[in-house]
Every structure is written in structure tokens, then in C-alpha cells.
């Protein structure tokens, strides 16, 4: 038997129950859950004393129960009905049974969208959690902690503000907006009496086909790290909410592109590309909990991996918070991974080989008895339970304020990416005018496409329901693209034209005639809502019927076609957009997205978003992020592989000029610093925002083939017409170093001497733009 783990002493850190309930004012005339009134000890010494007192008074069976997290739907009879008198039908006898067993946590939502007309309100949530906690108190049970997925706002609570999905939020390259997104999400979730949120997703979007790309902050390790820290700090700013970084680790790069499939990732890539966002979450974000992943890495299920969950997460990263399994993942060792003979074998493996604290379960079944039996047989140490057992909890009140929705609108405004904008014909060589913005309020506009009249599909999965919804009335705020355009232009006509699967809707001949008689045709294409396995696709191309419709529209010479792509991943367009006058992309801007898209089209908002990932052009090159190795190029001569749009691409209605790029020195010691200055000038006629990127490239690297370049710094500046500003970046050893691939022996960086380049702007070629590419040497 493996020795008991000793590094889990501080699990769930500051979230320790202070043993007494402090009741405060009622909200909406409903009492808050007792869990919403538990004080949290936040001192270094206090929590351990409280936990020690709790553990002394728990039986071994109750200690086992404390480490089980059960789907709350198991507490209800008669289905998932929140509409029965305003409350679900709680099985109080079953709650009492769970209380006696000491079940320590519940998760999920007790409704699945089959019978509901709306998500439960915060008052609904508090009422039911109050009832459960009351039964727990009657049996003198330790209060349970409740956890829930809060991906882009409190997505399971009626009237809560829903922000753009993380991938769309990352397109803003505005960390302040994401910090505020975290604050609002925490406030709205606490209003329901829920203190623990399963967010953020910190995987890098390395596999474009993957169905959960939109839950990430993009493909770049630095970008994901920066936004992950911002979201965690926003979520935890109230000192009453615990964020949960997930999914540790490698989940975001399934080799087949299918959700939960095996990922093949070298140790070098794991520690240099996939680990930094988690490392930043631990040390900069001070995240309080973590969730492991569904998948396997290099054939080893993460749920059973000592290397990843002990050596990398606990030892190398120094993470001491609570680690929960993903849903039913312990038992997937038997059913899916085929890496355990039985559920008992799976439980034994996880407790003795990993550092998982809490086992997330769809139902209790015999898990409690099996775990208790292993302890009684001496196959699991009781000290292992004590090391993992800690307690938690929290409160607050109202959701969905106008201020919150303004924050969501600001995030949506900065998430809409303008990627193509053709000059109007005839082209004025001196002062060309472009298709967008459409500044004539009397313009004849035809709006069409499967997402033109759907708020629901602008939000995607994790919106009201797990898989999202197709019912836009369930999305509490905002308007569709169609409605927003109707309020913006006087002459708007609409036809759906095609559905998300590509099937023709209505009369195609009539639709094309509407386009021909309109000055502008705005076609909004993309995906229906999905997440996880339900979003698996065999091909990254946008459905053929949607692409055909775009081609038919762009073949009409009398209309200017504006293609708007709204999807959770970069769906290939197959050249259908090549004759379009303009192209906009947004990765699920959600409830404020319809208005944001209309405001960008009309010019009320000057677009400032940039692609947070590479947008592929061909299916053969979809698995090639911008930071690929220098020997992973295409064609003879190792030229760049053709992409539709590169990482960092994004246009504005004004123009920016970069000049005076200077380094403080051309040589630096391996542990030294340099400053890089760049002047950015708004040379256009509109106020605008520009994202300033700094990449580093390495000419020769002995430890591993170097990347083409890696983003190390970014900032966003706002400039009035003709205004200039000088931006300064400090470059340090972290910018020209890499981690040795030696999991289990700590993160040790290597700084090889040699030639490096600091590259300003996403599309700079050092050969063609030497003024934006500054060389420096790192000395030993």
C-alpha cells in the first residue's frame, strides 16, 4: 500500500467553517440557507484548529462522506420539477440519510430543461438549500458545500447576467473586463447561497475541433494565464467564493478532436504550454480549488496519475487547495478507461496513487460502503481521509442589475472581431471608404442566417441548461442580432434562409431576391448550442448548406454581403466568404452579443477585438497553433502554413501606426532585464483601442526545437484620433527561458545563451519589418 499523502494539510485553505451560524436579514422574504451565514476563518492558525475539532467528532464513515460530492438530483422524487409550487419535490428522508452519512458536498442543478420554462430564481435556490441544510442541522451533520458550474456568469440562475463565453471574452484582450465578469458571476452565484464555482477552464485551445474550446481563453499560454488569473481574482474578490481551476491537465488537446479522448503531449509541451496557466492560477490567482480532467494523457488516465496529480500539481506547482474529480471520473476508470477491474479497484487506485480529495458522483450507490470497507481493511489510510477533509461555506442577495448588464455589454462590444472589411466601389485611392461601418440609418438591410434571430445560440452551452437552449425566451436579457438591427436601421427585412445543420428554410428564390434588392445583406451563421460530447463533430467545416448559402448571397452583385460567424470554435468556411464585403467573428458573445454586433456594424462601437487563437483555412492544418515549432512549417522552404486568419488578427475603423521600437540594450545576462518601448499612434479619424503584442523568438535552442514565436506581453491602449502613446514593457528571464521537462522535481527554468528577437505586432515578419523586430543576445 502506498504511504498516506501528507501534502494535503491545507486543502480548501481559507474556506473553513467557524462552527457557528450567524443569521442575517431575510432576502425576498425567504431565509438564506444556513450555509450562507457560516463565517470563514481566514487566519493561518484558526482553520486548522477548527478542522481538528471537527475531525475529532466525526466517525470514519462520516469522514468518508465528507469527501463525496453527489448530484443534487438524487435528493428529489418525481423528476426534475422546479415548477411544482415554486419548489422541487425534495425527498426529506433521503436528505436525512445523506446527512447521517456525512455527505460533504452536492453539485449540479436539480432541473435539466425537459419540463422547465425557466431556470430557478436565486430565491428558489436559497429555499431548497435552506431546506436541505435544515435537515442536516437536525442530524447535527457538518454543513455541506455546494458547487456549480459558473462558466460565463451564473448560468443556472434566472435573471443572472450572462457574459460572453470565455473565448469571446479573451478576444477583448482586456483583463479588467474579465475581472469584472468574475465579480458579477460570484455575486450572482452567492445570491443563490452557492459559494463554490467550477471555473475557470485553464486548458489551451490547441485542438480546434474540440467541443469545449469556447470555455477556454484561447490557444496561447500567456493569454490563458492572464485571463485565468483575472477571472479567479474577480471570483474570489469577495473572500466568500471559491474558484475552481479546471481541467487539470491536458484535456484541451484530444488527439482525435473528440471530447474526453486521449491527449498525446510531451513532457516539454506539458510543462511549457499546458502547465503555465495552472501555475499562474496557484501563485498569482491563489485559486482555492481544482478539478482534474475526464481524459487521459499519453494513455494514462489523469484521475489515476501520481505523476500529474501528485508530482506535478502538488509537489511542483505547490497547490494545496481542494482537488475534486470530474463527474463520475473515478468510476470511468472501469467503464471508459478500462484501467481498473472494478469500482473498488478504482477507489483504491485514486486514494492511494493520487491526491484527489473529493469524489464527484452522479449518485451514491455503494460508493460510501466500498470506500469505508477499504479503510476498515487497512487498504486506505484513515489519515488519508483526515488530510483531505476540510470544510467550507458562504452568502449574498440580488442578481441581474443594470450595472452588471452594462459590464456584459462592454465585454461583448470588445469581443466582436472584424477580420475583413473591403473598400467600397469605386475605390478612392486617396481616402478609401470601407464597407463597414454602415452609417446610413436609412440603408436597406437584409438580415438572414440561422443565428440572426436567436439569442440562445449566441450564448452556447452552459446557458440556463448544461447543453444550452434553443429557446431565446429563456435568455433573460439582451436582444437578437435581428432585433438589434431593427432598432438601428429603418429598412430591415428578415428571412432565416438556412438552419444550423445547413437545411434550407423557406423559399430560397425569394430570399435571394430580398438580398438583391438590399444594399447590405448580413448573414449570421454558426452553430447551435452544445458542450462536451454532444459537441463532437467529424469535420471542422461549417455545414455545407450554410456555406452554399453564403456563396449564393455573395454571387449577387447588387448587395454588399457581411458574414457574421458566431461559434464556439473556428469553423472552416471553405472559401465561402471570399467574395464577402466584410467578415465578423465572435466566439459566443451571449445575451448582449446581438446588440454588440449591431453596434459594431453601425459604427456605434469601433471594433477592437483580436483572435485569441489561430483560425485555420484547411482541414489538414487545423492542429497547428501560432506558436508551433519552427520545423512544423508547410511546403518546400518551410514556409508558414496558410491560415484563414492568424492569432492576434483583428481590424478597426481607425488605423494605428507603430514606431520608435527600442530596447534598452542589445545584450542582457540570463537573469537580467530589458525594457522595450514602442510608440503607438492613432492615425485615423475615430477614437479606437489597440492591443499591443510583444512576442519573443529564439534563433537556436539546444533543449528543444524553438517555437516560431511566443507571446510574452500584451496591453490594450485607448487613443483619440492623432493621439500617440509610448508603451513600455519589461522583459525578464521568464521571457527567454523554458522549463525543463522533469515532472516531480519542481519547475526549473533554463535560459540558454544566444540570439533572440522581441517582435511587436501579431503579423510582423522580421525580414520585411525590421523596425518592429529587435534583436538581443542573452549571455550566460
UniProtKB/TrEMBL annotation:
Q: Which domain of life is it from?
A: Eukaryota
One example of the protein's molecular function in GO is:
beta-glucosidase activity
For this protein, the record's InterPro entries field holds: Cellulose_Degrad_GH3, Fn3-like, GH, Glyco_hydro_3_C, Glyco_hydro_3_C_sf, Glyco_hydro_3_N, Glyco_hydro_3_N_sf, Ig-like_fold
- Tell me yes or no: is Hydrolase among this UniProt entry's keywords: yes
Which of the seven top EC classes does this enzyme belong to?
Answer: hydrolase
Tell me what reaction this enzyme catalyses: Hydrolysis of terminal, non-reducing beta-D-glucosyl residues with release of beta-D-glucose
Assigned protein family: Belongs to the glycosyl hydrolase 3 family.
Record protein name field: beta-glucosidase
